[in-house]
Amino acid sequence: MAQKLESKERLREICRVAARVFYEKGYDGASMQDIAKAVGLTKAGLYHHVGSKDRLLYEIMNYGMDILDETVLQKVKDIADPQEKLRQTIVGHIDLIVRARDQEITVILHENRSLRGALRKKINARKREYIHYLEGLIAQVQERSGATPLLSPPLAAFALLGMVNWLYQWYRSEGLTKQDELTPAYVDFFFRGLLSTA
Length: 198
Fold this sequence. Notes:
77% helix, Tetracycline Repressor, domain 2, 10 helices, mainly alpha
């Protein structure tokens, strides 16, 4: 058991370092030698842990989804009120995107098309679970509002994801807009659109 946990932690550490390499050089531009050097392994040692470059990309993306689950979804799971639960989910998701240290999330967003075949299907299945979660929560919020919504839950969920996920492209913590201004502005903007009837 201890060995399995140690192996999982080692894989996560490889993913964290490799994500930075992919972020800096791009998936196509980064070689396994680059990653092995950054991780402090031989190339053979890296292949022992991950098998292939595609598998490494999958593991990074899978770890990124684990981070979403651990740092966002687990924190809101006991919130009973759908509106507050959705609000805190958005706050957590924004925090996840704008924190520079979580390059695993950036890799999920930026290198999505680089993953192929069965591995891509597995990651897409995890992404769909999150989308369905958002759709269900949005439907509950709309239902409780009692008004006829302007947006269907699927359209609202994709609008939310587009708005939040795009932050990785332009947001810089050292810029004029600080996270404590950005987050409430985004949350308020989304809820005004979601619950608007005109």
